[in-house]
## 1
Amino acid sequence: MAENMEEDLGLFEAATHSRNLELKAVPIGSLLVVADGSNQDLTSRAIGQSIARRFSATMHERSDLKSAAAIQDAAAQLSADLIVVPAPFGEDIQLLHSQSLGSVVDALLHESSIPLLCVREPLSELQIQTLMKSILVPVSKDNDTSEQALSWACSFPDAAGTLVLLELADQAAISEAQQLVQGKSEPESVRQAAVGRAMTARLGALVAATQRRASEHGFAVQVEFRMGKPIQEILAWTTSPELALIVIARHSDRTSAAFHLAADLLLASKGPVLLI
Amino acid sequence: MTLDTHKTSVLAFCREWRVAGSSGLQESANFPTILAMIEVLAASTVSEATAAKPVLPMIVLGTIMTLTYVAIAFDWLNKSLAAMLGAILSVIAALSMGVFVDEEGHSAYDRAVHDIIGHDIGVIGVIVGTSVLVEIASRSGLFHFLAVKIVKLTGGDSRWLLVAIVVATILFVTFLTIAPGTMIMVSLALVVTRELKLDPKPYIVAIAICANSGALMTFSSGICTLMLGTAGRLAYSHFFVVSTPMALISAAIAYAFIRRFYRSSLIDTGDLTERQQQVAAFDEWALVKDRRLFYRCALILAATIIGFASAQRLGIGIDFVAFCGGTAALLLSGIYPDEAIRKVNWSLILFFVGLFIIIGAVQETGLLDWQAKKMIELSGGNSIITMLLIATFVLALSGLMDNIPVAATLIPIVRSMESQGLDATPLWWALVLSANLGGNSTPIGSVSSVIALNGLEKERQIRIGWGEFMKVGGTVLALQSAAVLLYLYLFATFNLFPGAAPPPVAGG
């Protein structure tokens, strides 16, 4: 019962603290699909075509770009809103066994201001068709660009789609929750509920804004809270029941833990990851 | 051994223990009280037991029942554990003393345990079904959403906020039952009053007290109401005639007194416009974790309520309807079933099972029939006086101990009165109204006050002691009791109880 009250308190704190946030629609007028001659090219092209149809955008495919600088220059020239790139770049994914993203992708991660949709393992046609029906957005208070990630994520699913907003407990939430229980001898379930409360209260505005966008466009939103290891928690969602497109924000501070989380997630993921 | 010799030896035994208890033992002050209770029980039953039923089983099983209730009332043991322990002792005692005997197709044990539980399995079924449904409805954010919507209508005015909280409490308890409904409202009140810099006390006390009115609204709004409605075979629709008006009257009484008592706290501070803007900015969509589940739960709840209302007409039990509602919620929610099923109030179910077994065993001894006979004699066979006596007794006792055992014990007594020629319909309604409202007088009298006051102390470090609560709750109960007794009297006098026997025609 104590856990339920912590959860209810968190929900109402979210509602009463919620600043009026609006997730703006993301226009994608042009996208650049980069082919590197690997076994990921077909998937990259198919995903690019799918996105282009969804947003009525122009797709530009280039196979002559070999470096991060060249890719960024091409994107600037084409005024691309999105870059679709295989990760690792220049090698079949099986060869490297996910040990590395390669220097090109690594450089793009750090330098590109344009969102990157990194293609990992080759996908079947069915998987590509259903990819945009299931979107997963991990958010935490540490990441100041969660709002941007959600704006992008809300642009993808249609009325049959589902967006899962995965709240990951961060150190700030855990510390705040520890203050809430203040050394009292509470059972573990109550402590966890207290962390959930702290998270829910702080992310209330994001939840509310996402629900409002979802009401306008008819897709479903699920909000889940997790306290475990972030990468494991995120990947657990993407494999059942169907492959989900992960949308995650790269933190503006490229040395931060949140940025490294995005990079580590890309390395560990078998499915495509959209890095904002 | 003759009856008198037996009486003498039992009384002497009890007096010896009472002296030893008060002088030598490091026990709580309650120990001599318990023995005094046993002594009174023994003395009265032994001296006046009917010749048809043996006396010893009445004394032993009556003692086990009394001790169980005392253990629950004084919180010596977890109430489910106390009930289970009492049930085990009752079965052992009943079987060894031959209270239950083998019948064709039914062993003594079957009669002592399985038949008793089976007779009341409907209540358990409703608890299971509604627990699952309520858990899933809570997760959908449906009621949290409605709660914030209701608060926004007040514009931050402290007095209107009190009205909104009373209305929402009654509404939520009606559909969610008392514990989940109270918890949502207490959390809302704590957060909103903190945001608006209001004193939380009037709102928390209002929730604690008005939740008991909410439990009266429909057949399925409270566990006690459900248990009594099932036992008395009261029609769902009849609750709207008898119980719902009293629920609203009692809530109005509570609201009026609480508003007066806490009038100095219900003063708005700060800028009104700023407060209105603050409240308008509350975002109810932040509460909805899954919109599809949100709408589905609303539909399933509505369907379940319609099912409850139609169950008797369709010839099915409301436990079946509750099961269907819970199953539908599990199917359509996408929530992992084990997670939701884990939230079923198994503790309450075990408490019920234990209680039913104890009372069933006591009933079989004839003790409760004897008590029914005594009550009828006390009232001179007048059904209105009997009804008022029962209501008064239950109103008084429910403040001191859990209303469920009080109500459960009176069920066989009322049935016995019915078999002795009294029209039981008014008695069932008297039980329904008094068992729910009786818990308003003390901080431990009902689960809603326990949740509310604990929440306030834990979250805001504000303690409402017995003194303050009893000033408010005790006064409210006194006013509500007068209203209940008058209400019952008028209903009985003018034969307004649906399904009641018509008054006897005057001879001429």
Note: Chain B touches chain A at residues 138, 141, 144, 147-148, 179-180, 183-184, 186-188, 190-192, 195, 281-292, 451, 455, 459 (CB under 8 Å).
## 2
Amino acid sequence: MTPNHEKFATLFNELYPKLCRFLECMLGERSSAQDIAQESFLQLYRFGTQRLPTEEARFWLFRVARNLALNELSKRQTRLKLLHLIPDPLRPEKPNPEAELEHAEQSNLLWDLLQSLPEHQRAILLLREQEELSYREIARLLDISESKVKVDIFRARGALREEWAQRQGAATNVEKHRRRNQV
Amino acid sequence: MNCEWTEKVSLLMDGELMLEEAAKASAHLAACETCQEAQADFLQLRELVQDYPAPGLFAQRRALASILGAESAPERLPLWKRRIAVPAPIFALLFGAVLMLGALIVASRFSSLPKPTSPLQNQPPRANVAEDGPRSMDFSAFDRGGRAVIYVVRQPPTSERKEKP
């Protein structure tokens, strides 16, 4: 392995798991997340790892990955809109069996909770909670103001808390109903 | 339900308050149940987000190999851009063969054109005037060697011409 490859491999092994985790939570899906993570690293490789110190590379990667994730989410919304235009008999029953199976296997509460947030709030919250970036670093990475970061994090936490409470409330009601039927 | 201090509690969790503000927020938190419940929920959600698993090592290694492999491989040019390397002698032979073929084609085209004909071309050479008689004037008797046969025509005297009917 050449020295350039070694440096890149070191950076990759350190940041790939974190980037994948961030993207999976952003997209709610594993395969797209891994594709985008790979594309982000490929762009970094072509840009040249020797041009950036490690911390800058981290910022660069997350910025690129987040933009690619937003593009992917936008495409999904367009596909959904187009799907709704198709008459019911012609609409495919299972558009992506693999994604459905993946979702069924995961059945992750976190994915469901995060999908209830707008994309920008989701990204900010994930960067804060998973990557432990400061508000200033998040603002720099996303090219927004620090005050916007403060407001969005608080709103995201509040929205997640409400969503979680509703789900727990629904689960509690289901449990009560089940016990009533058993009796 | 949120207290007006709940946002400060959120900032306190992230260490984004100045010392003085942090002290005030901590003091309020100790006395406010609403803020305590909010903080507990926020921390539980943080744990849920942080506990999300990273991808396995197999996927990681495969991705790295894919990136380095793709970038190390020589770029494959499209067919029309590829140079076909031909050794020089073979190229010279091919070139010579093409030239010869072209020359043959041109030569065959010229040979197939109709040749200009002459009314005299297919006629046999005439015999000498000495055999035909004194009145024949036939300039077609150029021989094949291109030599002209000179005819001498002898006219009878005037008196002899008048006597004849």
Note: The first helix of chain B runs from residue 6 to 13.
## 3
Amino acid sequence: MSLDDLLERASSSDFAKYRPGPVVDAVNALHPLGKDGALAAIDRFLAARDLDADPHQGLFLVLRVLFEVDADAHPPMRLGGSMPDTPPTPSSLPRFPIVLVDDLPLLLVSGYVLGGEPEPLSVHLDHYRQHGKLRARPLAPPALAPAARMAKLEQLYRAAYQRDLSGSEREHLLAQLASVP
Amino acid sequence: MRQHQQRGVGEAGRSDGGGAGEAAAGKRTLTEGMADAPQAAAPAPRMPTTLQAESGGPVPGPAAIGGGDGDGEGGVLGGEATNMSTGDLAAATWSDHGQFKWWIKWVTDGTEGWIVQKITNTYSGTKKDGTAITNASVGAVAAYYEAWEVDKAGGITGSLGKTGNRDRWERPALGEGSKGSWSMTGNVYWTASDPAKSGMTSGGVKNAGSLLSSTSAPKDLSAELMTRTANGVWDSTGKAPTHAGKAK
């Protein structure tokens, strides 16, 4: 599969159907290009697409997995209101709405409530260009039973929100875990 | 995912302040016709009113000036919007589990000012686990204001120039086993006063994305120019999920 094919697979804005595999593949295909090469590849990919028709919001998630930042948390994704919301202490889930559990990027949010206009990808691309550092290694999620990963996620979630996952949040995450071989 | 392509009774296309017409189910709506038609030219920007002070008296500020016709020479002021309508960028669609999407662009004769929309949200229902669906539970703010800037030539942007002439109304899917209802109302105004000076900030309200937004009304709003509404009732508890509503 070409890099563009991998970016296309990972770029879906339909977060209700998010699966971590395409994001892992896209991040690992971009990583060998280095910081500038990865950002240039994403720029080229987006330049060939009509972002007004399809904003390719999945690439927000690719960026916050591919890069590290010095700040407490990655820049907020201004796509609307969400449940759960950004944690009260952003550093508790610095890649929110993504949570990395043993190198597997899991998405907490299944969709956004929007009455307005989401921020464009270009804002985050500029941010990572100025402040981002490429992750040290490609992603290598080990083979783990879904229950084991879920237990780790629940611990992180409880620490961030002082409550347990809701039923619908748990279902959304279990579907993601079930998709991982 | 199934999409219930019911665009609702009523126009989701050009709906001006005079109220939208009704389209019977199965008939071609204005929105569908617009999707095939060439893009209509935006109305020509109105020439701003030229002011000349008399006998050294004070010149009224922009907020007090209505639109008018002039030759554009001399003192240049913005043209207050007298007409506001929308055109679909993506027709309203109601999908499974309460999911909804409707994207529009603004069409106005105003120049050098701001389109301000007050959004009012409602949500009720239950999720599969029996928990209540409310505005707060889905991350919806009950009411807020958001703004788009209109420049001298009538060009419309949002988010301090970072986004284009678009307003996107979206509701997320709330899962199998959920059911409930939702509504959105957009009351649309004009102002010649910079909403940022009233405290509106980019991303001020999360539901507005990165638009200038606030839960407080900015100053100097005109009379309401148009009202937009969308609503839906969904039931994902049975064998076949349903979701239907109206948007105009």
Note: Chain B touches chain A at residues 1, 89-90, 97, 99, 119, 121, 127-129, 131, 137-141, 146, 158-159, 162-164, 166-175, 178, 184, 186, 203, 205-211, 213 (CB under 8 Å).
